[in-house]
Design a protein that fits this description.
Elements lengths: L4 H21 L7 H27 L5 H24 L8 H27 L3 H9 L2 H19 L5 H28 L5 H34 L8 H7 L5 H12 L1 H26 L3 H25 L1 H11 L7 H16 L8 H13 L9
């Protein structure tokens, strides 16, 4: 049993790592972390149901083992893995297809990990090699096919009429099934030294395609935010300018962290992420044709707008002022702002340490004084 521990670790850590990479690509964080965990957990149930179905199919003699692997297993597995996605895209909180891609990838990874454990247990001493081969091939296929379904369902959400919505979703499911069937046929028909190469190529190409679609989707999302964020939802132009640059949010927050601390920078990031979700939901209302779903999203927008206001107050006026002044006119889009900032930095550096005036240091010190508890007067 101890000899299998490295295999189990490989079978767990690498798939989870691939999911983390996909999650980090979504810099708008449309995919909520707790929902990702939900997809992961439900995929474990899906694996149990699929295993029982495949076992029954074999025991009852309905299909031969190879036929199950090549044809029926991919069909039933894709159906069961993706069930949670059909529910998630129907919720008012859902934004667009990038969110569906992340949730689908999570469901596929969860399914693949449990399947890894099953194969490793049966492999014995060759468990490590089996784990390595699976995490760079089969696991990526499982994750990518369910992610494809999530992408199609995310797009179907905006189709006119329930027949077209179901049709687009079923098209995504069919494509996922065909890719899975094709992969299983390749790995069961090739028996020479090229097997691992073929399997790995299929897995990496599939995962790369998902990453490409997500990156394209994020560019679309940026356009949506530019069009939808505004004073309707109490988002200033300076705040909107930062939200549309979330791909470099860590660079943006670095000077804020230096001035106000890491905790304040984290609060600002949470605030901006909520504003991004607000923008996506506002755009969803514009694009949706289903009136019932529109009403549901409007209710979610009202709740989220209140959360944004709370987050803004938590950030505080001084940090918000710094953010707005610095990024209302980004350096790369305004030569005047860049020159002005350079002059200010040069003059600040030229001042003596004592007696000089530093606006941000003054604001920070006043903020610190504001939060200090008042001194108690000594009793006479």
């Amino acid at each position: 049993m101890l000899i299998l521990i490295p295999a189990y670790l490989i079978a767990l850590i690498i798939p989870v790592g691939s999911l983390w990479l996909i999650y980090t690509l979504d810099f708008y964080k449309t995919g909520e972390f707790r929902t990702i965990l939900l997809c992961f957990v439900t995929s474990l149930v899906a694996f149990g149901l699929a295993s029982e179905f495949n076992r029954t199919t074999y025991n009852e003699g309905w299909l031969e083992r190879l036929d199950i692997i090549r044809y029926s297993a991919p069909v039933i597995e894709e159906i069961l893995k993706g069930l949670i996605l059909w529910y998630l895209v129907s919720r008012p909180k859902f934004t667009y297809f990038v969110e569906g891609a992340v949730y689908g990838f999570a469901a596929g990874v969860g399914f693949a990990i449990i399947e890894n454990f099953q194969y490793i247990q049966a492999a014995g001493d060759s468990g490590v090699m089996l784990a390595i081969s699976r995490v760079i091939s089969t696991n990526l296929i499982h994750a990518s096919t369910t992610s494809i379904l999530g992408i199609f369902l995310g797009q179907a959400r905006f189709e006119q009429g329930w027949i077209r919505r179901i049709g687009v979703g079923m098209g995504g499911l069919l494509l996922a099934m065909l890719i899975h069937i094709g992969f299983n046929n390749i790995v069961t028909r090739v028996d020479d030294g090229m097997l691992l190469i073929y399997a790995t190529a299929c897995g990496l190409i599939s995962a790369g395609l998902i990453a490409f679609v997500i990156m394209r989707g994020l560019k679309t999302g940026k356009i949506w935010l530019e069009e939808s964020l505004g004073m309707t939802d109490r988002v200033t132009s300076g705040e909107a300018a930062v939200v549309t640059r979330m791909e470099i949010i860590d660079d943006i927050l670095e000077p804020l962290a230096e001035q106000f601390g890491n905790e304040k920078a984290s609060q600002i990031k949470d605030f901006l992420t909520k504003q991004a979700r607000l923008g996506f939901m506002r755009k969803s209302v514009e694009r949706l044709t289903d009136e019932r779903m529109k009403r549901g999203i409007e209710e979610e927008i009202a709740k989220l707008r209140d959360q944004v206001d709370v987050a803004r107050r938590k950030v505080g006026s001084y940090a918000m002022l710094f953010l707005r002044l610095r990024y209302t006119f980004p350096e790369d889009s305004s030569p005047l702002w860049g020159r002005l900032e350079t002059v200010i930095q040069e003059r600040t550096a030229a001042r003596p340490t004592i007696g000089g005036v530093n606006l941000w240091a003054t604001l920070k010190s006043r903020q610190e004084e504001k939060i200090k508890p008042p001194k108690q007067e000594s009793e006479e």
